[in-house]
Amino acid sequence: MTHPTAPLSARTPDPDIHLYDTLRGEKVRFVPTTPGRVGMYLCGPTVYSDAHLGHAKKEVAFDVVRRALTHFGYGVRYVTNVTDVGHLQNDADEGEDKLQARARLEQLEPMEVADKYFWSFQRDMDALNVLKPSINPRATGHIPEQIALIEELIERGHAYESNGSVYFDVRSWPEYGKLSGRKLDEQAEGTREAVREEKRDPRDFALWKRAEPGHLMRWDSPWGVGFPGWHIECSAMSLKYLGEGFDIHGGGLDLQFPHHEAEIAQAEAAGHAFARYWMHNNMLTIGGEKMSKSKGNFTTIRELLEHHDPMVVRFLLVGSHYRSVTEFSEEAFQSARNGYRRLTEALHEVERRLPNAPERDDPALRGKVAAHVEEFEQAMRDDFNTPRAVAALFGLTTDVNAALNGGEVGRPALEAARDAYRQLGGDVLGLFAQSAPERQDDAEVVDALMELVLKARQNYRLQKQYAEADQLRDTLTRVGVTVEDTKEGPRWRR
Ligand SMILES: Nc1ncnc2c1ncn2[C@@H]1O[C@H](COP(=O)(O)OP(=O)(O)OP(=O)(O)O)[C@@H](O)[C@H]1O
Ligand SMILES: [Zn+2]
């Protein structure tokens, strides 16, 4: 059995954190199994396409929970998986494997697809300042663990083999449905005839599927050659790395049924204590509809970051609560941009003044900073209420700006303000990644300089000073800037 072993932070673990537990249907006090330590599992991406902003909402939401728990003194082991097998195109145990379908389309090996989109996902998460997981297990790397769990379920009479596939017997497990509150009779059947014939009950779900001849991803098993069902990987890998009765399981609201319901049944019917708290994020919408690949109304993170500062994207996401819908629109972006700038300008002014600040104390400002820190922490203790936490940072900014506009401010108060921004906005909300504002500033400077350089080159050419114009262009080429002459005038790129 493994238990979280992340180092404890210096702060005494805060006993007053409350979170909304989907299983109990209410806000409850969070008490980890091992004092001071938290084991947390998040359902990760199925790596068959670039991630969109909806995926970012989920990743940022749970990254903030992790960061907040760390801030409040807990050692967090954060496990999130990579689904690289078994996720079929249709939830009812049918359709082609999503990776295999993509492999056919792109003429790649399924594992090439997995790696391509795994790295694409990592790049996006790095840009959004999502911390790397403590453990990032892949489903294809844990086939023996999944087979072992399926064998336990068969032994206990909760699963059965049928024609080379293995199904979970939902009628043998009365608790099935406890997370989503669905009664068995209400659950959709919707399975094709051939698959239905293999099942004792149409609502049984696949733990292992027989591989048809054209199926590329296949492994030996006690039931013949096949591949695991999608749900079993999360039960097997969370238990392996976090142990019995681990603390928090997270995921998107849309995963509650069938995926999370199945995860619970698989683990508990096999005799394992499963996650003790369940947290679900709501959806990112566009025009009131869930952003999703199948609807085609999505913007990939990569596309978005071509034009937007990743920290503004993150700021937009933390601006709404993880259990609320986030509506994505141009106006929401504009207001995130303005809000983020307001915070960073105040922070940068505080840091600019610090080296030459007088030693004088300003107890009034220090008191206000402390009050805003308290507001921020109270908001985060209350089910990780990021919009209230952001409001506390704005309150801080109003007071800091008033003091800065009023003249000199002493070092202790400036340091307190800086620490509040850096530790709360920076470490907890993950904003102010060092490089982002600097990259932004740099980009603005480079744009302005390039405009001047291109004007100078135009002037040389107008005055027929071709040697000078060419020399300018050669110098740019040497530093990796290409200039193209188009109908609309010269364009440059790096
Ligand atoms: N718009 C969204 N807002 C918040 N979370 C989302 C959103 N879309 C997807 N997710 C989360 O990411 C997980 C993986 O999503 P998935 O790959 O199914 O994306 P999708 O765009 O919904 O695809 P599809 O439309 O094909 O179902 C979802 O289960 C959900 O938890
Ligand atoms: Zn899962």
UniProtKB/TrEMBL annotation:
InterPro entries: Cys-tRNA-ligase, Cys-tRNA-synt_Ia_DALR, Cys-tRNA/MSH_ligase, CysS_C, Rossmann-like_a/b/a_fold, tRNA-synt_1_cat_dom, tRNAsynth_Ia_anticodon-bd
Keyword vocabulary terms for this entry: Aminoacyl-tRNA synthetase, ATP-binding, Cytoplasm, Ligase, Metal-binding, Nucleotide-binding, Protein biosynthesis, Zinc
Alphabetical list of HAMAP family matching this protein: Cys_tRNA_synth
MF terms in GO: ATP binding; cysteine-tRNA ligase activity; zinc ion binding
Subcellular localization: Cytoplasm
PANTHER family per the UniProt record, alphabetical: CYSTEINE--TRNA LIGASE, CYTOPLASMIC (PTHR10890:SF3), CYSTEINYL-TRNA SYNTHETASE (PTHR10890)
Identification of the protein by name: Cysteine--tRNA ligase
Positions of the Cysteinyl-tRNA synthetase class Ia DALR domain: 375-445
Motif annotated as 'HIGH' region, chain positions: 45-55
UniProt EC number: 6.1.1.16
Co-factor note (free text): Binds 1 zinc ion per subunit.
Catalytic activity: tRNA(Cys) + L-cysteine + ATP = L-cysteinyl-tRNA(Cys) + AMP + diphosphate
Cofactors that this protein relies on: Zn(2+)
CDD domains reported for this sequence: CysRS_core
Family listed: Belongs to the class-I aminoacyl-tRNA synthetase family.
SMART domains associated with the record: DALR_2 (SM00840)
Complex formation: Monomer.
